[in-house]
Amino acid sequence: MSYFNKRNLLYGGFIIAALLMIYTPLKDLLDTAANREYYSHILLIPFVSIYLIYLKRKEIYSDKVYSFGVGASVMLIGIILYAAGRSLGASLNQNDFTSLITFSALALLLGAFISAYGVSAFRKALFPLLFLGFMIPIPSLLMSGIIYFLQVGSTEFTNILLTVTGVPFFREGFVFNLTGMSVEVAKQCSGIRSSLALLITALLAGHLFLNTGWKKVILAVSIFPIAMFKNGIRIVTLTLLGTYVDPRILQSSLHREGGIPFFIVALLLLAPVLFFLRKSEKTKGR
Q1: DSSP single-letter state for residue 248
Q2: What is the pLDDT of residue 240?
Q3: How high is the pLDDT of residue 71?
Q4: For the whole model, what pTM was predicted?
Q5: Are 64 and 7 in contact (CB under 8 A)?
Q6: Which of 71, 117, 121, 166 has the smallest count of CB within 10 Å of its CB?
Q7: What pLDDT was estimated at residue 199?
Q8: pLDDT recorded at residue 155
Q9: DSSP 246
């Protein structure tokens, strides 16, 4: 099988076009340290999608057929969105501008895939192609809503965990007042970055290890309470260390950059959910 046939060259041309569309906006967005923290996963997403397509390449490309009509319709949506993004660029912040441009480039790619390989191949490659959606920066309004949701949930879990420890405290909204110290569950404590990483992990695990659609949804949705509980553990741990060991801990790198051990905790909590969902499929299959 030659990789340099007309179909692949056609699609390769549109891949280059999509990369040219998103290169400058994404580069400008990721030049900011805060955005790099939120979107550090973006550069890895295409490689994951390519690998997933590679795993199913024989099935996906088993019945290739040109489908220019459907493909061109999807591509047209991408072109219109790109034009809208360019015309509205001055009125949008960098995040939302990049979000719109990246979405338009993804629409162009999906349409090009349908044009070159057909609707049947598109259906078989649906997950890895839609997985590219994680390259799209989350629009600011939606990001604010997600952060607030995680902030509220993390605060409630913090309240429960502090109550369980028996430590005396007084709560005022997002603020916990302990002996000689007050700690606020701020937006920065929402764990949005680790929650995104957990969601990506759960979706990949569901795709690779589960067959039932609703069980994949359960696995993906389970990351929200897990992420909130993990945040609660982290906040309580740092609060107790800061209160009873050394207040400087709350200003240390453990506070600012010590999320990896707690992310591992979240993965350990996600593992049994996947195990039981997978086991239930095997049990029903007997």
Answers
A1: G
A2: 86
A3: 94
A4: 0.88
A5: yes
A6: 166
A7: 95
A8: 94
A9: -
* Cα(217)–Cα(225) distance, integer angstroms: 14
Sketch the domain layout of the chain as residue ranges.
Answer: 6-137, 142-285
Return the residue matching tokens 């459907």. Answer: 70
* CA distance linking residue 268 with residue 237, whole number of Å: 18
Report yes or no: 228 and 192 within 8 Å, Cβ to Cβ: no
Contact residues for 55 (Cβ-Cβ < 8 A; gap 6+): none
User: How is residue 11 written in tokens?
Assistant: 């699609």
Using only C-alpha atoms, the chain has a radius of gyration, in whole angstroms, of: 23
Residues 6+ away with beta carbon under 8 Å from 162: 169, 176, 236, 239
> How far, in Å, CA of 115 to CA of 201, rounded?
30
Contact between 109 and 14 under an 8 Å Cβ cutoff? The reply is yes
6-30 vs 94-117: helix axis angle to the nearest 10? 170
